[in-house]
Amino acid sequence: MLPHFLVIGAQKSGTTSLYRCLGRHPEMVRARHKELHFFDREHARGRRWYEQQLASPLRVFARRLAGRRTLCGEATPAYLALPDVPARVRALLPEVRLVALLRNPTWRAISHYHHRVRHHGESRPIAAVLDAELAGAARGGESSLPPLGYLARGHYARQLERWLAHYPRAQLLALPAEPFYADPASTVRCVADFVGLAPLDPRRYAGAFRVRHAGRYARPPADLVARLDDHFARHNERLLALLGPGFEASSWAGIRPIGSSPTETIAS
Question: Which element (helix H / strand E) includes 3?
Fold first, then answer.
């Protein structure tokens, strides 16, 4: 069974929480684990391996035998940022629905840094790390940035343009992440409708909405936040021009990260 939808990104934008909520819908069969990475690092394993990771054939058969409608999807937030992925997805899944949850890119980069501190041994100060990428972008151009780096992952318009070169706009749902943090049920309802799950009050199937993979960290220096905001400003304008008024980026304006000073809660 191939997926009906993909949550393609962005990293540190609530994708784990969203996928867990969707996975509790009675029509939904979740993949064996989140982030299969089939269309990037596991692509050589082939379609059969991919289908085996998505859903057990026996489970799908039993559900269909019982007359239960069955949809499946997977979530790998690296897909959004990697240039080779859209063409690979299009070749196998021309009808798939694409979901992108997009966090304010300044706070996404800050959250990404702290994620790497916790899980990948990053030990440099946050200002040194992010200023190094800002300097690299100024010196060598933004195309010189690593696609999975702190800054490039927040260049959402450029990433989505690559996807829209392979898919019609109607197959892509892009939503700001901040309203999901504030009112999860509303976002889950919107995404469930878009991917084809039967209408159902999310409170009946999602259980208690809570942030997954949350952490706490000290507020970054205000001048660093300002430099990041300046860097992302024109990328955000380009994103609004691409997605139109339906994308409520006003939720990014002057927004504080979830939590309260001097520490903040982050989500993935």
Answer: none
Report how far apart, in Å, the C-alpha atoms of 169 and of each of 51, 75, 81, 91, 172 are: 26, 19, 18, 17, 5
Select from 97, 80, 101 the least CA-distant residue to 194: 97
Contact of 7 with 75, CB cutoff 8 Å: yes
With a cut of 60, say whether residue 254 has pLDDT above it.
no
pLDDT confidence of residue 207:
60
Does residue 60 carry a pLDDT above 80?
no
Q: Taking residues 56-76, what's their average pLDDT?
A: 83
- How crowded is residue 180: how many other Cβ atoms within 10 Å of its Cβ? 26
The whole-chain average pLDDT of the chain stands at: 87
Amino acid at 1: M
pLDDT reported for residue 99: 98
Alpha carbon distance 267, 78 (integer Å): 16
Number of helices followed by number of strands (H, E) in the chain: 11, 8
CATH class name, domain 5-266: alpha beta
Q: Is the dihedral of CA 233, 99, 167, 52 positive or negative?
A: positive
Domain boundaries, the chain: 5-266
CA–CA distance, 147 with 155 (Å, rounded to integer) = 9
Distance CA 51, CA 44 (A): 13
Whether omega for the bond prior to residue 10 falls within 30 degrees of 0, making it cis, is yes
Least confident of 65-79, 172-186, 218-232, 240-254: 240-254
Long-range contacts of 127-131 (CB under 8 A, 24+ apart): 127/220, 127/221, 127/224, 130/224, 130/227, 130/228, 131/224, 131/227
